[in-house]
Each structure stands twice: as C-alpha cells, then as structure tokens.
Specification:
Helix content is 40%, strand content 12%. With 324 residues, it is of the alpha/beta class. The protein has 2 domains: 192 residues, Rossmann fold; 99 residues, Orthogonal Bundle (DNA polymerase, domain 1), CATH 1.10.150.170. It has a 6-stranded mixed sheet, with helices on both faces. Strand 1, helix 2 and strand 2 form a beta-alpha-beta unit. Helix 9 crosses helix 10. The longest helix has 15 residues.
Length: 324
C-alpha cells in the first residue's frame, strides 16, 4: 500500500485496553492500512472499520477479502459512527479504537500534500474533498492564517509567518509553503528542527477539522458503547491528547468544565450527571524498543476507559473561538 506501510502504534497496549472477547463487535474508527482491524479480528472480534480517506477504502478491500467476513469497511468519518452503525443495523458495540492524526501512507505520498519531505501539490485533505490547504492559504486573510498557525501549531511568530504567506501567494506546492515558513522564521539548513513542521500541522488540522472531528467522535463513541464497553484512543500531539484526557475525566466525574476548545456551559454541570465512563486508565506511551523501531511512535499517547451503564451525556460542549 505504500513504500512505508503504516505501523500501528502501541498495538499490544491497545489490544490489552480493549480486552476483546470472541464474538464481540468492535469499531476501528481509523482503518488506515488495517493494522488494528486485523489484530482485533485475530482476537475474535467482529470489526466494523471506518475511514474517510477513499484511498484507504479502495486499498483496504484486500484486507476485507482476506478476513473471511470478520471485518467490514465503511466509508465515513468516525464522528458519524453512531449513524453509520445504525445504518449497518448495529445498535451498540463492545469497543471503539481511534488512532488520531495522519497516517504513514498519507505522509509518504507526495501527491497528498501532507509532508514537505517530498514536493507535491498543497492538498492535505484526508477525504480528498472540500477545501484544500492551497485553497485556505491562498484565500484566507492574514489574521485568520495567523490564528490557525498559533492555535493549532503553537507558532509564536504566527503573525510574521502569515504576513510572509500572504506576500508569497499563490502557493501551490508543499515545497513552496515550507520555504516561505523557513524564510519568515530565519531557519538555517543545519538546524535540526524544521519550523515548517508546526505550520504543516496547523494547516492540516484546520483543513480537515480534526479537533472538532475528535470531539464529535468521542461523543459518538460514548453513544454506541454498551455498558462495560471499552474505548482506546491513540493521539500524537498535545492538542489531541488534551481533548481526550479532559473528555474522559469529565465523563468519569473527575473534572468540572469542558475542553479548551469546547468549554462546559450547561446549567446543571458535570457533577449533576451520572458518570458515563469509569475512571480512565493511566496514560500509556511507547517504550524505547518501539520508538527505535518506529520513530513516528515517539509522541504517541494511549488513553482508555470503560463505559458505565449511565446514559450518554451527548453533545455536551460548545465551540470556543480561536485565541488571538
């Protein structure tokens, strides 16, 4: 499927958190190359896999054919898993797994535009539909670009970078975008960390609505998990991890208030609601052996929890505007 096939991160730890029993139905909300799905099926699960990337859907058909009916693959976002499962005739499931962020296949294919390591079209769309990175960078005003770079990329000189981007428009390739960011920040070729990484992350998150997708996906998972069902989420940067951490703390009754993106605004507050999850397990991170074998695992964090019998809290949070 790729010169560098996607290697599932924290595989053993995810499977331990899911505690799969033969015959259970589990959702792999981020199918990718099918690594988690295959491992879950090998443990005896009936897997319903989702992916919004049409490449993953097309290339995953070989995995589905080899699964002898153990894996079903559905095109769609994991934020819509409750609706997609209902359409498939499934009301509740025993487990939900999410591997958040960009996959190795997307990063390694220059034409997808997710990485500046290989020059390609400035795209970054996971679903290959809607606004591309080029559309955003060439059409948005300077203030909006600066806000996105600051909020999603933690770029402290976001206004300067945005000014350089606007002056260099139109931008059509990943190398051109990276070059502009480097010029704006005075990056030297010998410096180890490339500042374009932060800008690419920020624009990718914005183009794909990744943080809203994650928050809606957590709510959808809460809705479909049966009592005793397990959720396991692997994230790769602090924005994602904070959303998952606060969601699970909140839903387990351990913390008042919402995430930094969607603060709690209900009148009754979390303390008035029965916890929909048990206390989350301790966060797990890759060991030295895994990071040596797969450098992309370095920043991964696994968080997991078990569903209670309480009703789901539902769409409990509201959007917060971008910080400026």
């Amino acid at each position: 499927m790729s010169d560098s096939p996607h290697i599932p991160v924290l595989m053993d730890e995810v499977l331990d958190a899911l505690a799969i029993q033969p015959g259970e139905i589990h959702v792999d909300g981020t199918f990718g190359a099918g690594g988690y799905s295959r491992a879950m099926a090998a443990r005896g699960a009936q897997v319903i896999a989702l992916d919004r990337d049409p490449d993953a859907i097309a290339e995953g058909q070989a995995v589905i054919a080899a699964s002898n009916g153990a894996i079903r693959l559905i095109a769609g976002t994991f934020s819509a898993m409750d609706r997609l499962l209902a359409d498939a005739g499934v009301a509740t499931v025993s487990g939900v797994t999410l591997d958040i962020g960009v996959s190795s296949m997307q990063l390694d294919r220059a034409e997808r535009g997710f990485s500046f390591q290989r020059d390609g079209a400035l795209d970054m769309r996971m679903s290959r539909a809607g606004m591309s990175a080029a559309d955003f960078l060439n059409d948005a005003d300077e203030e909006e670009i600066a806000n996105i770079l600051y909020h999603y990329g933690d770029e402290r000189q976001s206004r300067r970078v945005a000014r350089f981007i606007v002056a260099a428009r139109p931008l059509t390739t990943t190398s051109a975008f990276a070059s502009v960011v480097r010029r704006a920040l005075g990056h030297k070729p010998h410096e180890k960390k490339d500042p374009a990484t932060r800008a690419f992350q920020a624009v990718r998150i914005h183009v794909n609505g990744e943080l809203d997708e994650l928050e809606r996906g957590l709510e959808a998972a809460e809705a479909v998990l049966e009592p005793g069902g397990r959720i396991a989420i692997v994230t790769f940067h602090s924005l994602e991890d904070r959303i998952v951490k606060q969601f699970l703390r909140q839903r387990s009754g351990g913390e008042a208030g919402g995430s930094r993106h969607r603060p709690d605004v209900t009148s009754d507050g979390p303390s008035a609601r029965a916890p929909s999850f048990q206390k989350p397990a301790r966060a797990v991170r890759p060991g030295d052996a895994e990071t040596a074998a797969n450098p992309r695992a370095r920043s991964a964090t696994l968080r997991s929890a078990v569903r209670t019998a309480a009703p789901p809290w539902g769409k409990h949070m509201v959007n917060e505007g971008l910080r400026t």
